[in-house]
């Protein structure tokens, strides 16, 4: 058995965490395997609780009250007309939502050079993790608007002070 173990090449963890996996743990490292088992246990207990809650809700709702009546047809047609009136505004707002979505990132690697940083990585205000070289906003083309945040901070710190109006005699 020890000969078979020696012949096997070490494989990286299936979660790409950087550690070596084991065939006994589904090619996962010990930490990822432990996390997977914990997640499976939580999901099974959550499913059981959800089933019990649903069963209780169905039993209580069928006994206590009848289902609500459907909305009148004229209201639903009015809603459809409102939705079709402004298709240009909706189309213009959709690309903005797509631009704001962040690409998936491994929090243990620098976004720019993909160097492994672990716990020594620097989290920027734009929400990504960078190595020591790329931690500055000028080095990684930061999308965070420092100017706007600075203006808001100054506006909060220095409120406008107005004197009370004087009564004329």
TrEMBL record:
GO terms of molecular function: DNA binding; zinc ion binding
Domain (A20-type) ranges: 7-41
Functional summary from the UniProt entry: May be involved in environmental stress response.
Keyword tRNA processing included in the entry's annotation: no
Keyword Zinc: yes
Segments forming domain AN1-type: 104-150
UniProt entry keywords in alphabetical sequence: Metal-binding, Zinc, Zinc-finger
PROSITE patterns: ZF_A20, ZF_AN1
Record-annotated membrane-spanning stretches: none
Top-level taxon of the source organism: Eukaryota
Composition-biased stretches (Basic and acidic residues): 77-93
Positions of the UniProt region annotated as Disordered: 59-107
Species of origin: Brassica carinata (Ethiopian mustard)
Protein name per its UniProtKB record: Zinc finger A20 and AN1 domain-containing stress-associated protein 3
């Amino acid at each position: 058995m020890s000969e078979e173990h020696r012949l096997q090449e070490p494989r990286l963890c299936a979660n790409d965490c950087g550690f070596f996996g084991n065939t006994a743990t589904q090619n996962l490292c010990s930490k990822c395997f432990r996390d997977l088992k914990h997640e499976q246990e939580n999901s099974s207990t959550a499913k059981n609780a959800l089933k019990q809650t649903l069963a209780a809700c169905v039993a209580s709702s069928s006994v206590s009250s009848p289902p609500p009546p459907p909305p009148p047809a004229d209201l639903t047609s009015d809603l459809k007309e409102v939705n079709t009136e402004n298709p240009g505004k909706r189309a213009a707002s959709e690309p903005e939502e797509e631009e704001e979505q962040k690409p998936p990132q491994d929090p243990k690697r620098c976004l720019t050079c993909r160097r492994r940083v672990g716990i020594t990585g620097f989290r920027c205000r734009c929400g990504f993790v960078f190595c020591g070289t790329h931690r500055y906003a000028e080095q990684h083309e930061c999308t965070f608007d420092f100017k706007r945040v600075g203006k808001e901070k100054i506006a909060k710190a220095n409120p406008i002070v107005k004197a009370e109006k004087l009564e004329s005699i």
